[in-house]
Amino acid sequence: MKGKLSVLFVAVAAMIASPAVGAAYWSDDFEAYEVDSLIMGQDEWTTWNNDPSVDSTISDIQAASGEKSLLISG
After folding, report:
1. Which one, of 45, 33, 39, 43, lies nearest residue 73 by Cα?
2. What's the rounded Cα separation, in Å, for the pair 71 and 52?
3. Which residue has the higher pLDDT, 7 or 38?
4. Integer Rg of the chain from CA
5. Is residue 2 scored above 70 in pLDDT?
6. Which H or E element spans position 28?
7. 12-56 pLDDT, tens per residue?
8. Suppose 39 and one of 18, 45, 46, 66 were both cysteines; which one would form an S-S bond, judging by CB atoms 3.0 to 4.6 Å apart?
9. What is the rounded distance in angstroms from the CA atom of residue 16 to the CA atom of residue 33?
10. Which residues is 57 bridged to in the sheet?
């Protein structure tokens, strides 16, 4: 039993320390974008199915941190 727990601990530690796991984290605070601009085409942003009719707008009305957020509607 002790050996199985050691193997499990090593496996979990390896997954946490893996560069692939760290590389999967990405965030954007929208501070670099102009208010009222559309997000599609900025940086690497796109829309569902690359459909410009469902684009979202950068807003300064409400934000969790910073001054800007993404206004999603529809």
Report:
1. 39
2. 15
3. 38
4. 20
5. no
6. none
7. 666 666 555 556 677 888 999 999 999 999 988 999 889 999 999
8. 45
9. 32
10. 38, 71
